[in-house]
Here is the input.
Amino acid sequence: MNKKWLSLINDLPHADKLICPNCGQKQIDYIYVGDDTSKIGYLQIWCKACRKGIYISRVRIPPNVKFVSFEDSKRMEMPSYEFL
Ligand SMILES: [Zn+2]
Here is the structure.
């Protein structure tokens, strides 16, 4: 998996400042989806401009990030992009 994408993870609370490793635009967005109690889930990071991104399974969901429960994610429109 692309290290440049992985390096974005720690700065996701400031996603508006992040630069897409693929196209160079500041269009990064992300969502953590997981279990409300265990706070284990998966992470999707993608670029709204070029529609590329990554998917990381089995992550611990930190505080102060965009998070939805598995349950709520079924009622949401999830991002569509190409996994790198
Ligand atoms: Zn991009």
About this structure: The two ends are 7 Å apart (CA to CA). Residues 46 and 53 are 4 Å apart (CA to CA). The first strand starts at residue 28 and ends at 34.
